[in-house]
Amino acid sequence: MTTDSEHPDLAALQRRLAAFAAARNWQPYHTPKNLVAALSVEASELVEIFQWLTPEESAGVMSDPGTAHRVTDEVADVLAYLLQFCEVLGIDPLAALEAKIDRNEFRFPLPQEEPGEGRGE
Amino acid sequence: MTTDSEHPDLAALQRRLAAFAAARNWQPYHTPKNLVAALSVEASELVEIFQWLTPEESAGVMSDPGTAHRVTDEVADVLAYLLQFCEVLGIDPLAALEAKIDRNEFRFPLPQEEPGEGRGE
Amino acid sequence: MTTDSEHPDLAALQRRLAAFAAARNWQPYHTPKNLVAALSVEASELVEIFQWLTPEESAGVMSDPGTAHRVTDEVADVLAYLLQFCEVLGIDPLAALEAKIDRNEFRFPLPQEEPGEGRGE
Amino acid sequence: MTTDSEHPDLAALQRRLAAFAAARNWQPYHTPKNLVAALSVEASELVEIFQWLTPEESAGVMSDPGTAHRVTDEVADVLAYLLQFCEVLGIDPLAALEAKIDRNEFRFPLPQEEPGEGRGE
Hints:
Four copies of one chain form a homotetramer.
Chain A: H1 10-23, H2 32-50, H3 55-59, H4 65-89, H5 93-107
């Protein structure tokens, strides 16, 4: 599933996570209910980084190396639990997202395609 | 937008999401602070599906078509906001996850690596 | 603990919630783990109301009657689950908060008490 | 700041929190949007304590002094941000909860009110 380059592949990372948990006998803890709780906890740890920042300050978090590392680390945690949740329930996250974008393009059509207009809402 | 096969690609979906938001002029709303709040809200909508279930019931949610659709839809929403958050901050989610798994293999070593034992990787 | 006036009392509301759940045989669902998940879901429903608002817009939500009702309703839900969680674990929320404020006054002392100064952090 | 007895009062604690924030010039940070984000973060810190526990284990958390203290501390944090949120928006949390319970008694009526049966209120 890894393509060609040095770039990791989502499905390969999902398999690595599954093997990692299996090797440590963590599967009994990895019920869908527990994994989704852990996912929401990690998402909140991302929120915590931003909770007192202005919108402008929030746009500049990556310029501080320490904060950049923390943000990147929490992104990894959210993605890890999302993939493990998908693994135990047999959900294909990329297919799910593609289907959702298709539906959203129908739900939020561009009002008109005239040049220089194209505004949504 | 998919690469070659029938399988969508994470980076392609991320670009589709960015184009979708840009075409609707949603970028002013898509501050990192707002996107991470939306991410946590979607994660909680996943939690809501499981909040009163026993661990056993939680493992069987995909056998009901309505619940399966709802779960899959929320997975898509979580992934969508995570990718949009990464987009505005220039974070590579796959590289972030790969680095995290590498660190976790160091933090949580397998107790022993005797032949025929080490079930991981 | 005020009982006489028209004002409802926290402990009385906590007892009403406990009786309400007991009368409907909801106690088996009301494990601490489930109640805290429900609490976090309700907190996120509050976040959802504010997620795309600017700080200024967020300060004005009560001027729209529909939004004001929604916000007030979610506050009630958060408080309801917090009290039910405290009920099943035997925690006194007011004593917990008083102790926390005491600790915070020690952790975040006022730097100086000179007239016209008094600035924290 | 407590009224008469040894028991703290919700309104008195709410005033103490407001004075605490004002004395440290924290009001600019205490927008409704930020406070509700902080509330959800604290709720998730409670979830984190329970995320890998079985329902049975979750019922026993208070028997470990360290965990009991952590749980009690997070309860205080959730209540503190809820009260500060109510303060800045002028919401009466006890009136909100009382109105909600009234509505819920209408929404979830007891199946039958035969004498010696109705266990509620």
